[in-house]
Write a structure and sequence with these properties.
The chain is α/β, with parallel strands linked by helices and 120 residues long. It has a single domain, classed as 3-Layer(aba) Sandwich (Oxidized Rhodanese, domain 1). Helices cover 32% and strands 14% of the residues. Helix 4 links the parallel strand 4 and strand 5. It is globular. The termini are far apart.
Length: 120
């Protein structure tokens, strides 16, 4: 009955997420699996697959005590990650549409070693 009144973690558009993570207000956490991450990710993003996060892995040291914006390919896994992190007491949000929407918005994507990446 009260589930309709509960609000989950916040959601950001790709542009809002880019702004908050570029100005240092929050840390971008990519929760996709390693092959997806290597193909292309947002510059400056930290990497922790949802599978490891769900298994109890700690956040990367750079994200400890900071607001976290989770991102994945389409927004489904990042939503799960934001809820999981919120349950741990982390101020967490996720990016609607994930890296697909990020790339579509013309935001930067880099590959392994800093080369030009693709959204995977």
């Amino acid at each position: 009955m009260f589930s309709l009144l509960r609000r989950g973690p916040g959601r950001l558009t790709p542009r809002q997420a880019h702004q908050r993570t570029s100005d240092g207000t929050a840390v971008l956490l990519d929760v996709r699996e390693t092959p997806e991450w290597r193909a292309g990710h947002a510059p400056g993003a930290l990497h922790l697959p949802l599978s490891r996060l769900a298994a109890g892995a700690s956040l990367p040291a750079e994200a400890e005590g900071r607001p976290v914006v989770a991102i994945c390919r389409s927004g489904h896994r990042s939503r799960q990650a934001a809820r999981l992190l919120s349950g741990r007491g982390v101020q967490a949000m996720d990016v609607t549409g994930g890296m697909t929407a990020w790339a579509r918005a013309g935001l930067p994507v880099t590959g392994q070693g800093g080369s030009g990446g693709v959204q995977a």
